[in-house]
Design brief:
Shape: elongated
Order of helices and strands: HHHHHEEEEEHEEEEEH
Number of strands: 10
Structural class: alpha+beta
Strand content: 15-25%
Radius of gyration: 29 Å
Distance between the termini: 14 Å
Strand order of the largest sheet: 5-4-3-7-6
Helix content: 40-55%
Length: 278
Amino acid sequence: MTPKASKDTVKISQDLLFKRPYIWILTISITSLNFLITYSFQNINPQYFYYFFVDVLTTYMIIEFYAFGIRYLNQKAPLSKDFVKRVTYQLTLHTLVVIIFTILLNELFDFIFFDGKRLSLSFVFYTKDTFVALLFVLLFHTMYFGLFLMSNKQNLESLRIVPEVKIKVKDAYAFKLLSPKDIIAVCSSFGISYVIDVNYKKFTSELTLKEFEDKLNDNFFRANRKFIVSKSIIESYKSVNNGKIDVIIKTKDLQELSETITVSRDKASFFRTWIRVD
């Protein structure tokens, strides 16, 4: 239940692909590789340098357009929120739009720089060259996803399929398994741990609060020695003397819950970070 870093402080290393000098390194590298694939250099002439200049400009604008699409997807479907959904969008719609932009840009530059007579804009262009462009786009996707997964440990952990934690509690003489999403608070009184579910029903548990800390997710916060609370049970909070925080919770007259829970000065900054994270 360690508070996560703020989104603004997380360094998104995969987006460095589209910042200088990396974007120019990619532009020159891709253009050079494309020349090796597309042209035969047995009869090289000065016109090839003109072709190379135009292709560098074309590649740069395509990468910038690709990056524009990535920034749009980062707002609408962030990788950290739903990886599968984002990969699907990026491999389908984003790829298709980039390829269409590539074709239109090449057509436009062919008209501007070559009066519409460049041989590459022919059947060969719409088969071989477009296929090569598609391979480069897929390569970009692979690099982008790879850097995302390697950028920090949290990204990898968010994609692991982990069995849902079930917590055994006791209701009178019967045992029951609760999911963390069904729990809103855990408290301790006279050595007994009480688990409160979303319906404000009280159960007992053999686990200690420390053991609950290991089992519960980041939606829970260990406020002090007696309470672990979820965000859903918090009504409000305010700073008080000596840097402490008073947290007002929804008790619904449940005896085991105190209306006000005090967070110590040592934990106050962690609490503020935790409560602000979605």
